[in-house]
Amino acid sequence: MVEKAHTTGLWPSLTDPLRAFGQRLAEWVAPAAEATANGDVYRVSVELPGVSEDDVEITLDNDVLTMKGEKTSEREEKGDTWFFTERQYGAFQRSFRMPPDADPDKVSAEMKDGVLTVSVCKRDAQKSNAKSIKITRG
Protein backbone atom coordinates (compact mmCIF):
# COMPACT_ATOMS: atom_id res chain seq x y z
CA MET A 1 0.00 0.00 0.00
CA VAL A 2 1.36 3.39 -0.95
CA GLU A 3 0.71 6.26 1.42
CA LYS A 4 -0.21 9.62 0.01
CA ALA A 5 2.26 12.35 0.91
CA HIS A 6 0.96 15.31 2.89
CA THR A 7 0.54 18.40 0.80
CA THR A 8 2.13 21.59 1.90
CA GLY A 9 -0.30 24.30 2.76
CA LEU A 10 -2.59 25.12 5.65
CA TRP A 11 -3.62 21.64 6.82
CA PRO A 12 -0.27 20.41 8.19
CA SER A 13 0.35 23.66 10.04
CA LEU A 14 -3.16 23.64 11.51
CA THR A 15 -3.03 20.03 12.67
CA ASP A 16 0.53 20.00 14.06
CA PRO A 17 -0.42 21.75 17.34
CA LEU A 18 -3.26 19.26 17.81
CA ARG A 19 -0.87 16.34 17.31
CA ALA A 20 1.58 17.84 19.82
CA PHE A 21 -1.25 18.34 22.32
CA GLY A 22 -2.39 14.74 21.84
CA GLN A 23 1.15 13.48 22.49
CA ARG A 24 1.44 15.55 25.68
CA LEU A 25 -1.99 14.35 26.82
CA ALA A 26 -0.97 10.72 26.24
CA GLU A 27 2.18 11.25 28.30
CA TRP A 28 0.12 12.58 31.23
CA VAL A 29 -2.50 9.84 31.10
CA ALA A 30 -0.04 7.00 30.49
CA PRO A 31 3.55 7.93 31.35
CA ALA A 32 6.38 6.09 29.62
CA ALA A 33 7.31 2.79 31.25
CA GLU A 34 9.86 -0.01 31.06
CA ALA A 35 9.47 -3.56 32.37
CA THR A 36 12.43 -5.88 32.95
CA ALA A 37 13.13 -9.20 34.62
CA ASN A 38 16.29 -10.83 35.88
CA GLY A 39 16.96 -14.04 37.78
CA ASP A 40 14.97 -13.25 40.91
CA VAL A 41 13.02 -10.00 40.45
CA TYR A 42 10.64 -8.18 38.08
CA ARG A 43 11.09 -4.41 37.78
CA VAL A 44 8.69 -1.86 36.33
CA SER A 45 9.94 1.72 35.93
CA VAL A 46 7.68 4.66 35.11
CA GLU A 47 8.79 8.19 34.21
CA LEU A 48 7.10 10.67 36.55
CA PRO A 49 9.07 13.93 36.41
CA GLY A 50 7.80 16.51 38.86
CA VAL A 51 5.65 14.00 40.77
CA SER A 52 6.19 13.52 44.51
CA GLU A 53 6.14 10.00 45.96
CA ASP A 54 3.33 11.25 48.24
CA ASP A 55 1.17 11.75 45.12
CA VAL A 56 1.55 8.15 43.86
CA GLU A 57 -0.46 5.08 44.91
CA ILE A 58 0.88 1.61 44.11
CA THR A 59 -1.20 -1.56 44.40
CA LEU A 60 -0.69 -5.21 43.50
CA ASP A 61 -4.05 -6.96 43.33
CA ASN A 62 -4.83 -10.25 41.54
CA ASP A 63 -1.43 -10.19 39.79
CA VAL A 64 -2.03 -6.66 38.43
CA LEU A 65 0.48 -3.98 39.44
CA THR A 66 -1.10 -0.51 39.24
CA MET A 67 0.59 2.85 39.70
CA LYS A 68 -1.65 5.90 39.75
CA GLY A 69 -1.58 9.43 40.98
CA GLU A 70 -1.68 13.06 40.03
CA LYS A 71 0.93 15.46 38.78
CA THR A 72 0.88 19.11 39.74
CA SER A 73 3.66 21.51 38.90
CA GLU A 74 3.94 25.24 38.65
CA ARG A 75 6.59 27.49 37.18
CA GLU A 76 6.73 31.25 37.38
CA GLU A 77 9.14 33.64 35.67
CA LYS A 78 9.33 37.40 36.12
CA GLY A 79 11.32 40.02 34.29
CA ASP A 80 11.50 43.78 34.04
CA THR A 81 8.69 44.07 31.52
CA TRP A 82 7.20 40.60 31.34
CA PHE A 83 5.61 37.95 33.52
CA PHE A 84 5.04 34.28 32.75
CA THR A 85 3.48 31.42 34.69
CA GLU A 86 2.83 27.84 33.61
CA ARG A 87 0.91 25.12 35.43
CA GLN A 88 0.72 21.47 34.52
CA TYR A 89 -1.49 18.92 36.21
CA GLY A 90 -3.34 15.76 35.49
CA ALA A 91 -4.09 12.24 36.68
CA PHE A 92 -2.18 9.24 35.39
CA GLN A 93 -2.45 5.47 35.72
CA ARG A 94 -0.45 2.50 34.41
CA SER A 95 -1.28 -1.16 35.05
CA PHE A 96 0.81 -4.24 34.33
CA ARG A 97 -0.18 -7.91 34.53
CA MET A 98 2.51 -9.68 36.56
CA PRO A 99 3.59 -13.27 35.82
CA PRO A 100 2.20 -16.04 38.06
CA ASP A 101 5.49 -16.41 39.94
CA ALA A 102 5.48 -12.77 41.17
CA ASP A 103 5.38 -12.70 44.98
CA PRO A 104 2.82 -10.12 46.23
CA ASP A 105 4.42 -10.25 49.69
CA LYS A 106 7.82 -9.08 48.41
CA VAL A 107 7.26 -5.74 46.69
CA SER A 108 9.30 -2.54 47.06
CA ALA A 109 9.28 0.86 45.37
CA GLU A 110 11.83 3.63 44.91
CA MET A 111 11.53 7.12 43.43
CA LYS A 112 14.75 8.63 42.08
CA ASP A 113 15.28 11.50 39.63
CA GLY A 114 11.65 11.44 38.45
CA VAL A 115 11.59 7.70 37.83
CA LEU A 116 9.47 5.36 39.97
CA THR A 117 10.81 1.80 40.06
CA VAL A 118 8.71 -1.00 41.54
CA SER A 119 10.46 -4.31 42.23
CA VAL A 120 8.50 -7.54 42.69
CA CYS A 121 10.47 -10.60 43.77
CA LYS A 122 9.83 -13.94 42.12
CA ARG A 123 8.53 -16.82 44.23
CA ASP A 124 10.93 -19.65 44.93
CA ALA A 125 10.49 -22.40 42.37
CA GLN A 126 10.16 -24.90 45.22
CA LYS A 127 7.27 -22.92 46.77
CA SER A 128 4.51 -23.83 44.39
CA ASN A 129 0.85 -23.01 44.90
CA ALA A 130 -0.08 -26.17 43.03
CA LYS A 131 -2.45 -28.43 44.92
CA SER A 132 -3.06 -32.09 44.36
CA ILE A 133 -6.71 -32.86 43.67
CA LYS A 134 -8.06 -36.23 44.74
CA ILE A 135 -10.45 -37.88 42.34
CA THR A 136 -13.50 -39.51 43.91
CA ARG A 137 -15.74 -42.13 42.43
CA GLY A 138 -19.25 -41.01 41.74
What is the strand and helix layout of this fold?
Layout: H1 10-29, E1 33-37, E2 41-47, E3 56-61, E4 64-78, E5 83-97, E6 102-112, E7 115-122
Per DSSP, the total helix count is 1
Under the CATH scheme, which architecture of the domain at 32-68 and 94-122 would be assigned?
Answer: Sandwich
Beta-strand proportion: over 45%
Return the CATH class of the domain at 32-68 and 94-122: Mainly Beta
What gross morphology would you assign? elongated
Spatially, the strands of the biggest sheet line up as 1-2-7-6
Would you write up a description of this structure?
This protein has 138 residues and is mostly beta strands. It has a domain at 32-68 and 94-122: Immunoglobulin-like (Sandwich), CATH 2.60.40. It has one helix at residues 10-29, and strands at 33-37, 41-47, 56-61, 64-78, 83-97, 102-112, 115-122. It has a four-stranded antiparallel sheet with strand order 1-2-7-6, with no helix packed on it. The chain has a three-stranded antiparallel sheet with strand order 3-4-5, with no helix packed on it. A hairpin with a 2-residue loop joins strand 3 (56-61) and strand 4 (64-78). The mean pLDDT is 78.
Keywords, please?
single chain, 138 residues, mainly beta, Immunoglobulin-like, three-stranded antiparallel beta sheet, 7 strands
